[in-house]
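Reopening this ticket.

The earlier resolution said the output was attached, but the attachment link was broken on my side. Pasting everything inline this time so it's all in one place.
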Amino acid sequence: MAAALALIAAALFAAALVTTQFGLRHMDGLAGAKFSVPLAALVFWLMLPWQGFGGWNAAGAGVFLALGVFFPVTVTLLAYEANRRLGPTIAGAIGSTAPLFAVLGAVLFLGERLRLTQMAATLAIMAGSTVLIWRGGAPAGALRGTAFVSWTAWLAAALRALAQVVAKAGLLLWPNPYAAVTLSYTVSAVVIWIVAAFSRRPESRRYTARGAGWFALTGLCNGGAVMALYAALETGAVNLVSPIAATYPLFTLVINAFILREERASARVLGGVALMVAGVAALLIL
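Inline output:
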């Protein structure tokens, strides 16, 4: 069940990535985040009568509230900035290292045991993700000086990994994924509006109907993905859930190829898919 939920999270993260690209054609990323994150928080609160905060635990609630300070909002803003500074190719390749940080964090802070086969499977998934993301489209000289400007991408990857470790720690105290996503998203919604209030970019205050529609869909997809991710972490170990959730480039490929018709099969694509499928299979079987 944990693996299935992690795959659902990956699929929804991929859908959110695609809808974000459409939204960015009409609105600034910060303006979109100001709309998508609070909308998702509102939807979760509207679900309260059916889901509830059963088994209330103050310590767990504190962990989820602290989690909301940097996930999803800070990670989202850093990812936008990384794409602006480095372009999607390099930023995406760096972002694919998040499962490694998450697995190591789980070993260090949660006491999870990591077998050699699990590490090999995680590395295979990361390699497959990088292959699918990397399209050779980085402009000449883009890698020159990357070490000085790529801190946003590395920090986003590290915080995304840390979020999974922190969420797992909170769920050990209070095994309620709905409470985890509702409380963390509520804090993130407040944070995004605070950040926007200090932004001097005029485009962050411009809205369009089409952009709002796409970012509304993005918020729902991302919210559902985080809910599925936390549900997976409730029963599954980080070293299983994190690598599988990182297979979202595979689902993005499927959306682009079969729905948007913007991707064609190639040796690179087939190689990336093979690595990711092999990695997931190894995690589930070995």
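Reporter confirms the inline version is readable. Residues 2-285 form one domain. The two ends are 17 Å apart (CA to CA).
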